[in-house]
Amino acid sequence: MEAIVAGPARREHLTAEIMERTGIDEAMIERLVHGFYAKVRADAVLEPVFEARIKNWEPHLAQMCAFWSSVALMTGRYHGTPMAKHLPLPVDAWHFDRWLELFEETAREICPPKAEAHFVERARRIASSLELGIAGSHGVMLGNGERFRLDQSGAK
Prior knowledge:
By secondary structure, the chain is mostly helical. It has eight helices and no strands.
């Protein structure tokens, strides 16, 4: 019988297992994050949302690397509140679809297939969760398969 590992040792074990299974490491996360946000900053849909809020990109990129390290490798490096940061943003399903399109494209370009699948599955869950939260903050309760649209909810 295998002993159950707890606390920091468990986290280290899980991180090592994910790294071995997917090939993801911190350098890959950094390439993915920087490549993705380079596309965001050149995108007609997403660039205005980000540029209105981010004046110094280096701290944001470092924070996003920590976030994806926590999400993809379970390292626990990120200590923020993503939902709270996203609730006030003027975004809807259209923005999340574009975000996913660029993210998936970047993951395909940078990552081997197992790593790509790992990142994309998590990105889709994150986008769905954020869209649901933002819709709720506008008083819109989404049903299964429904999407949040700012122009249909009465929100601006």
